[in-house]
Amino acid sequence: MTTPAGLTVLTDPSCPLCRSFAAWLWSQPLLVPLELVPAGSDEARRRFPGLDHGRTLEEVTVVGIDGAVWTHERAWVMCLWATRPYRGLAERLANPRLLPLARGLAYGAAGLRQLTRDGSDGGERGADYPDRCAGSCALPQG
Question: Looking at the DSSP assignment, which residues form a beta bridge with residue 11?
Answer without folding.
Answer: 38
